[in-house]
Design brief:
The protein folds into three domains: about 5-20 and about 25-205 and about 280-325, Rossmann fold (3-Layer(aba) Sandwich), CATH 3.40.50; about 210-275, Arc Repressor Mutant, subunit A, CATH 1.10.10.520; about 340-445, Structural Genomics Hypothetical 15.5 Kd Protein In mrcA-pckA Intergenic Region, Chain A (Roll). The protein has 15 helices and 13 strands. The chain is about 35% helix and about 20% strand.
Length: about 450
C-alpha cells in the first residue's frame, strides 16, 4: 500500500539519513526502506525519567521513527514542573508523570506504542531492563544513573581474552542539564567508559556543617537544612522523612520560615525548600530541547548505523552562545562495574550465607543486604518476601553446588553500598574462582580471565 502524503512528510527528514549513503556511516550500514521498517519493528527503547529532559526525549524518539517505547518514573506532577515539562497541564498536577507523558505523546504521534511504568527503577526485576535495545536516561540523580549503569553493565559478558561479547552490550544514551549547560553521552559497556568510570566528572554535593545550621545560619538554605536535618528528627522521634510526601515537605518549609524569621534571613520559599531538600538542579526548557535532540540522534545512529556515534561525551554551554565541545574519555580498565568483574577466590565449602557475610566485610565491595543471581537464577533474594522465603533454604548450601560445580563463573550481586556517607542501591559482577578444583590455573588465581 502506498504511503499517504502525511506519512511521507513525517519520514522525510528520517529518510535523508536512512535511504542514502554517506561518508560517516557505520561499517554495516546499508541504506534502504528496510532499515526504516526494522527501526519501527525491532527497536525497543526505555526512557528513564519523565521530567524536563524525559518529556523531550519521549517526544523526539517518537518523531524519529522509534515505535516501541516505554518510560519509567516514580514522581507525580507538581505545579513547579509546568514551566519546562511541556507535556503536562495544570489539570495533570498530582498524576504520575510517566502515565501522563505517554498519553500526551500518543495523542500527537500516530503509530507509536508507549508503555508507562509508575514506580521506582529499583522496583523492576533486572531482566526487565534486558528486553530493551537502548536505554535513554533523562535523570537528575547521580544515584539513579549509577544504578541503571550497573544494571546495563551487568548484562555484559567477556570472552576468554577479556574482550566484551558484542551481543551482550546494552547501549545507553545519557543526557543531563543544569541551567544553560548540558551534556549528552554515549555509553557502550565494555567499549566506552561507563558512568562509574567517569564519576569524578560530578562535583561533590554541597554539605553544610551542622554547627552552622544549629548556631549561625546565614542563608535561606541553612534554614531549610536545619528544619530538614535537625528539627525533623527532634519532633518526629526517628520517623523517616519522605521527600516525595507533600505533607513532609510542607512541614519542613513551615519550620524553615520560622527559622528564617528568627534570624532575619529572607528568601525561604516552598520551591527553594524542594530544591534544597531534593537537590533539584535548575532546568531551562531550551537546554532540555537541545540535549534531548542530541540524545535522540545518538539513539538513531546506534540503531541504524546511519552515522558514527558520538565519541563519547558532548558538552553544551548555551551561556556562551551555541557552544559545544566533544571530549573522548578513556575507559577505566579496572572499573568494578563495566569491567570483567571483581575476582574472588573461594573454598568449595563456603556456603551462600558465608559469602553474603564476606561481601559485607570485603573493603573493595562493602555490600550489605546482598541478593545473589547466577546465570539468571535467583540463588538468594532479600526481597520481595515471597522470593526471600523461596530462596532461604539455599543459604545453608555450598555456593559451589548451587553454581553447578563449575570451577569458575560469574555471579551478580545486588544490595546496598555506602557512597558519600549515603546508602545507595548497587549491582556488582563477581568472577568466582573455587580453589583446589581441576581447571583452575595459576593465571586464574593471579587475576586473569
Amino acid at each position: 500500500m502506498a504511503e499517504s502524503g502525511s506519512a511521507k512528510s513525517r519520514t522525510r527528514d528520517l529518510d535523508k539519513l536512512l535511504l542514502r549513503p554517506g561518508n560517516l556511516v557505520g561499517s554495516t550500514f546499508e541504506p534502504g526502506t528496510e532499515l526504516r521498517d526494522d527501526l519501527h519493528k525491532y527497536a525497543r527503547v526505555l526512557v528513564v525519567g519523565a521530567g524536563g529532559l524525559g518529556c523531550e526525549l519521549l517526544k523526539d524518539l517518537a518523531l524519529s521513527g522509534f515505535r516501541n517505547l516505554e518510560v519509567i518514573d516514580m514522581d507525580r506532577i507538581e505545579v513547579s514542573n509546568l514551566n519546562r515539562q511541556f507535556l503536562f497541564r495544570l489539570e495533570d498536577v498530582g498524576k504520575p508523570k510517566a502515565e501522563v507523558a505517554a498519553k500526551r505523546v500518543l495523542e500527537r504521534v500516530s503509530g507509536v506504542n508507549i508503555v508507562p511504568h509508575f514506580c521506582r527503577i529499583e522496583d523492576k526485576e533486572i531482566k526487565f531492563y534486558n528486553d530493551f535495545t537502548i536505554i535513554a536516561l533523562g535523570l537528575d540523580s547521580i544515584e539513579a544513573r549509577s544504578y541503571i549503569n550497573a544494571v546495563a553493565c551487568g548484562f555484559l559478558e567477556y570472552d576468554e581474552d577479556d574482550n566484551p561479547r558484542e551481543e551482550t552490550i546494552k547501549p545507553m544514551v545519557d543526557g543531563g542539564t543544569e541551567g544553560f549547560k548540558g551534556h549528552a553521552r554515549v555509553i557502550m559497556p565494555g567499549v566506552t567508559p561507563c558512568f562509574e568510570c567517569t564519576i569524578w566528572l560530578f562535583p561533590p554535593q554541597v554539605k553544610f556543617p551542622l554547627c552552622t545550621l544549629a548556631e549561625t545560619p546565614r542563608t535561606a538554605a541553612h534554614c531549610i537544612e536545619y528544619a530538614h536535618l535537625i528539627k525533623w528528627d527532634e519532633v518526629h522521634n526517628g520517623k523517616a522523612f519522605d521527600p516525595d510526601d507533600p505533607d513532609h515537605m510542607k512541614w519542613v518549609y513551615n519550620e524553615a520560615v520560622k527559622r528564617a524569621d528568627l534570624f532575619g534571613i529572607p528568601g525561604v520559599t516552598y520551591s527553594l525548600t524542594q530544591g534544597v531538600v531534593k537537590n533539584i538542579i535548575p532546568a531551562i526548557a531550551s537546554t532540555n530541547a537541545v540535549i534531548s535532540a542530541a540524545c535522540a540522534l545518538e539513539a538513531l545512529k546506534i540503531m541504524s548505523g546511519c552515522s558514527k556515534t558520538l565519541s563519547n561525551y558532548l558538552t553544551y554551554n548555551g551561556g556562551e552562545g551555541l557552544h559545544t565541545k566533544v571530549t573522548e574519555f578513556v575507559k577505566d580498565k579496572d572499573c568494578l562495574v563495566c569491567g570483567p568483574g571483581v575476582l574472588i577466590e573461594l573454598d568449595v565449602s563456603i556456603t551462600l550465607q558465608k559469602l553474603i557475610d564476606q561481601l559485607e566485610e570485603d573493603p573493595k565491595l562493602l555490600i550489605s543486604k546482598a541478593s545473589i543471581i547466577h546465570q539468571g537464577k535467583n540463588l538468594y533474594m532479600q526481597a520481595p518476601p515471597v522470593l526471600e522465603e523461596m530462596t532461604r533454604s539455599n543459604l545453608s548450601l555450598p555456593l559451589y553446588n548451587l553454581m553447578g560445580k563449575v570451577s569458575k563463573d560469574v555471579i551478580h550481586v545486588s544490595g546496598m553500598a555506602s557512597k558519600n556517607d549515603k546508602k545507595i542501591s548497587c549491582l556488582r559482577k563477581l568472577r568466582v574462582v573455587f580453589k583446589g578444583i581441576d581447571g583452575v590455573t595459576d593465571m586464574d588465581m593471579a587475576g586473569g580471565a
